[in-house]
Amino acid sequence: MALEFPLAGIGSRFIAILIDYALQFAAFVVLILGAMLFLPSMQKFESASAKWVVAMLVLIPFLLQWGYFTLFEGLWHGQTPGKRVAKIRVIQQSGRAITIFESLSRNLVRAIDFLPTFYAVGTISIFITKRNQRLGDLVAGTLVVHEGQTRDASLLGNTRLFTQTMPQAPAAPRATTIPADALSRLGLADLQAIEAFLERRLDMALDVRQSLAARLVASTAARMNLPPPANMHPETFLEEAAYGVRSLGKLR
Fold first, then answer.
1. Nearest by Cα to 218 from 201, 203, 230
2. What is the pLDDT of residue 60?
3. What does 80-96 look like in DSSP terms, one character per residue?
4. How far, in Å, CA of 230 to CA of 226, rounded?
5. DSSP letter assigned to residue 169
6. Nearest to 97 by CA among 169, 192, 200, 171
7. Which of 46, 147, 154, 194 has its CA 20 to 30 A from that of 226?
8. For residue 73, what pLDDT is reported?
9. Which of 244, 218, 92, 233 is nearest to 166 (CA)?
10. Phi, psi of 142 (to 5 degrees)
């Protein structure tokens, strides 16, 4: 059993970038209008002050372009406003949430992906790479995936899947109420999938975490020939299942 994410294709990424550029354009228009109101008053001061204002008008659009994507993706769990609308997000190839470092790395290469016009290089890269990665993704070791169960064919564009593989990590020890004969039906692959989720769950956005937990509980309960737990939190059930399988000792 493996955790799979549908990779975001051209369609959903195009929708996201259009929204993000529209927001950037709106911010730039506000900046220009503010400058038009502010510059006349600078004539009362030294010419050096006016030069500083002009320098800031050159610097701020640059920061707006690069800082917008870097800060939103780094601080907003791999999403910009456009990505949130398109229900996609950037993650590390390990399946973990990206940090500011990965966000900065992938967005510094955005200028190359944009060449020769409107992401021609990036689009070609997405088509020819196995995991739909533009050059920035290849440099930063990131992927763009759909959230949860999103499978709208009009948005997916490319339905290739990313299968998450994570090193196993023991779940927190706890008593288990799951019958031993049911636990014995689970194998090493089941345990690794559960422990992979438990290890990285704190890095996930809440909706993604809940969706993956529900899917894992359903598949794990089916493997054990049990009905899904009605009066137990999904993550508690997964913790007990992992601990119970380890306690049996058959995987050692």
1. 230
2. 77
3. -HHHHHHTEEEEETTSS
4. 11
5. -
6. 200
7. 147
8. 93
9. 92
10. -120, 165
Beta-carbon count within 10 A of 28 CB: 14
- Identify the sign of the CA torsion 87, 92, 97, 102: negative
First-residue to last-residue Cα distance in the chain: 19
Dist. CA 9–CA 88, nearest whole Å: 10
Report the alpha-carbon distance of residue 91 to residue 94 in Å, rounded.
Answer: 8
Mean pLDDT per block of 10 residues along the chain (252 residues) reads 74 94 90 75 61 72 84 91 94 84 92 89 92 93 78 46 53 68 90 88 80 92 90 89 83 50
Residues 6 or more apart whose CB falls under 8 angstroms from that of 72 comprise 79, 80, 81
Q: Please state the domain extents for the chain.
A: 3-162, 180-248
The torsion angles phi and psi of 144, rounded to 5 degrees, stand at -110, 120
Report d(CA 166, CA 6) in Å as an integer.
Answer: 17
Q: Are the C-beta atoms of 197 and 213 separated by less than 8 Å?
A: yes
Q: Structure tokens of 175?
A: 């008593």
Contact 22, 171 (CB under 8 A): no
Q: Which helix (H) or strand (E) holds 22?
A: helix 10-42
CA 233 – CA 58 distance, rounded (Å): 53
Residues 93 and 64 sit within 8 Å (Cβ to Cβ): no
Residue corresponding to tokens 């593989």: 165
Residues 251 and 243: beta-carbon distance below 8 Å: no
Triad 19, 89, 202: Cα angle to 5°: 140
The predicted structure's pLDDT at residue 157 = 42
Return the pLDDT at 149: 46
